[in-house]
From TrEMBL, chains A, B:
It comes from the Bacteria. One of its GO terms (molecular function) is DNA binding. InterPro entries: ArsR-like_HTH (IPR011991), HTH_ArsR_DNA-bd_dom (IPR001845), HTH_MetalResp_TranReg (IPR051081), WH-like_DNA-bd_sf (IPR036388), WH_DNA-bd_sf (IPR036390). The lineage of its organism: Bacteria, Pseudomonadati, Bacteroidota, Sphingobacteriia, Sphingobacteriales. Pfam families: HTH_5 (PF01022). It comes from Pedobacter hiemivivus. This is Transcriptional regulator. Keywords: DNA-binding, Transcription, Transcription regulation. PANTHER family: TRANSCRIPTIONAL REGULATOR, ARSR FAMILY, TRANSCRIPTIONAL REPRESSOR SDPR. Residues 1-101 form the HTH arsR-type domain. NCBIfam families: HTH_metalloreg. The keyword Ribonucleoprotein does not apply.
Length: 101, 101
DNA sequence: TAGGGATATCGGAAAAAGTCGATATATATT
DNA sequence: AATATATATCGACTTTTTCCGATATCCCTA
């Protein structure tokens, strides 16, 4: 049994994490403009945290769950960590559901 | 809003439930021949339970979780309940991942 | 209509996930 | 070097999920 798939579905089994993924689909529409970097690199943890309305530690943890599942990737720029979607992972997941699951 | 999606991902967040879905993809290959009905109607709870190696109550519960998520459907025939995959749900899920998530 | 087999439901113990506040670490600025 | 800011990690507590045994329900046949 494929434990990677299981990890992906667990990562998707949370309302806030699903919301974060949707926000990251269109950062311009979902977040205020970023001063220190464009949205190409992603959105910084602080902005995601403000929008989610949960504590910093919880959102940081959620982002690393999404990252371990391969659904997002992060880039450190200075003191900020920017997270963005890994679209390839979603395409693969879509195919997995059509063939594997 | 996306609570149906959440329910689906929760249903998929369990090793045994994922296995059951895969067994149901090819019942002929996964289960012994059924005496009281062909595999078109699905596979009865008892066979799934034996293969899963968990208790009857747990497997019954798992099947109803999958059913509430819309991933399987059941047919009662006499004293048996047969479960089969709802392939439409998987096609829809695949599309949801391409567009919604 | 009684008994037996298949499935569903209930109640609970243990494990996992959710969530927080406190603290550690990394980086930037002065 | 000291301080400030952003993020990550830790420890604890609460909620949810997992999985079981016991029991109820449904349906068949004698």
């Amino acid at each position: 049994m494929n434990s990677k798939q299981l990890e992906i579905f667990k990562a998707l089994s949370n309302k806030t994490r699903l919301e974060i993924l949707q926000w990251l689909k269109d950062p311009e529409a979902s977040f205020p403009a970023q001063v220190h970097a464009g949205f190409e690199v992603g959105v910084c943890v602080g902005e995601i945290q403000r929008k989610a309305g949960l504590t910093q530690s919880t959102v940081s943890e959620y982002l690393s769950i999404l990252q371990r599942a391969g659904l997002v990737e992060s880039t450190r720029v200075g003191q900020w960590t920017y997270y963005k979607r890994n679209e390839v992972a979603f395409e693969e997941l879509s195919k997995i559901i059509q063939s594997d699951i």
